[in-house]
Amino acid sequence: MKAWHFSEMAYHPGWEELGNSLRNVVPSRVFDPVLGADLYHRYLDEWALCDELGLNIMVNEHHTTATCTTSVCTIPMAILARETKTARLLCLGMPIANRMDAVRVAEEYAMIDVISRGRLEMGFVKGAPFEVSPANSNPATLMERFWEAHDLILKALTTHDGPFNWEGEHFQFRQVNVWPRPYQQPHPPVWMTVASPGSAAEAGARGHVIASLNTGYLRTPDIFKSYREAAAGVGKEATKDRFAYLAIIGVGETDEEGKRRAHQILDYSRTTPRAAAQFWFPPGYTANEVTAEKLHNRSPLMIPLRDGGEFVMQTGSVDEFVNAGVAFAGNPDTVFEQVREFNDHVGGLGHLLMMGQGGHISHEDTVGNLTLFSQEVLPRLAEL
Amino acid sequence: MDIRQAFAYSVQNLCRSERSGCGNGEDRLAMKQFELAGVVFDVDVHGAGPPMLYLHPEHYGQLHTPFLNSLAESWTVYAPRHPGFDGRRPPANFRQVSDIAYLYLDLLECLDLDTVVVLGASFGGWVALEMAVRDRARLCALGLIAPLGVKLGGRDDRDFADLSALPDDEAAACLFAGPLPDLGTFSQEELIAVARDRQFLAYYGWKPYLHNPSLVRWLHRVKMPVHLMWGAADGFVAPSLGQGLADLLPDVQLDILSGAGHYPQIECLDEMVAVLAAGPCASVGG
Predict the structure, then answer these.
(1) Class of residue B157 by CB neighbours under 10 A (exposed 0-12, middle 13-18, buried 19+)
(2) pTM of the full predicted structure?
(3) What is the set of domains in chain B, with CATH numbers?
């Protein structure tokens, strides 16, 4: 099992002032660029440390939010492509239905793959609902645009005989001819985030790596099962390296220290619901039956516990998040045991996406978290 | 010719109407299913009198029933349900409001209707304008209730409130001057319809937002009497846009209805019907 360190490069100093709305409508005057520069450098240093620790690197992007200042995922990737030597570099990812120039996406990915000498992992993601507004992408046609972008990017990265023509529903280019071509052949591995059995099946039929983000103990098995069935349906073997899971991870010398670190990182999860309600259900983004239910029932986001109970995402405790399988926290033995149990429960993981930094956790604690994980947990993941 | 005869005449001239039972001219008030240019859609046919093509707005179909009933007292109302809004996914290359306009021009030809009043509200008004600039041969007048489709402001101006970026209560308040619809009283089916209506308003009108940038250039082609009607308290499309439109249309009457928001046909039904009856749609079409 490989491990990947993920951070959203949060601008947490602005959270208190912004209150219960951290996305979409937040004025950028809240962002202090001097402090923001320090934070960018800090987060990049923590990723660079991963190269020494044997951890791989994961970045993502969000827009118009104080929860994530990685507004362009390929920018930290480009920096790290040069700054690191061995870590694999996962963009998870690129919201390709919201990027209006799919060829540019292929160019950015190709450059990073070459500069990093073939260490890029390409993530294609649908994007969260509140990403629709900053991109002004049509939510009613989002998935058809997603798949067309997917097809175009892969064709652009694998066509090496000069220009080809693309006149689709959503993208039109008459001379697609991407330079450079990628370092990895035929192209860097493709990852997709999934949140339901349906989306897992789409990826399974294509053989892409799926990453299930915080879907927990109860929801994840069905998602992975759906992938396996879809892969089998087209004659593909769903090996463990096709399955990734993202969890909040806090490791300490003691259970208390690990939980304290996880508690701070969990502010990433607790801030997720802090977005104005109208941005959660862009028209056509989700099934109309789901949207209809939310029209008159704006209940808070809940996370299911193993015993069938649930808790409020915005205020959950470390123990609740651990119970749900969303966080792994404690001393190295405790964390390894939690990961092992989850791995067995879902039928095998190839990749553990570790949110090792988030919320208000300090740089020193982040370094301690990553270091202890890499020294005391990572070697044992090879057993799984 | 009474309505029964009129409808029987119409259905005899259907170019192609499948699964509709349209051959039964006795069925005077019915939903008919058509397939034209590869698009399946439904048309409610309702009432008695000269023909009116009624093009529905984007939201709250069930709240428009009293208005449709009132129209049916004076006209034979043909009310198609726009593709997508009806729960059917439109064909992949059916994405523009102009596609809907061509579909309904085909419908008029198929039904062999002439001297038709086209009445469109909001999104339906946009469709009506797209029809009128293309082919006015079968039209005699246009009624437009706070139509979308034409942007007159500058690039920094919001001609149409960005409803999906507003809190639900503020978005609803843009549409209604008085009490807001209580979604808690909506059936599950009606709630799904609300979600679907929003989906297909986005499908056709997300970007450019709720307008066709070139439509304004061709408004001079709307060479027929036009009745513009606007709620004075419309917070979605301001009445000032109505005045701007009036300046661009060749033969126009603009009426502002006090006490109404974007849907005067819901909020001020009687006044709306009276204004319509006193305007060019009635005098020309009737």
Answers:
(1) exposed
(2) 0.93
(3) 3-285 (3.40.50.1820)
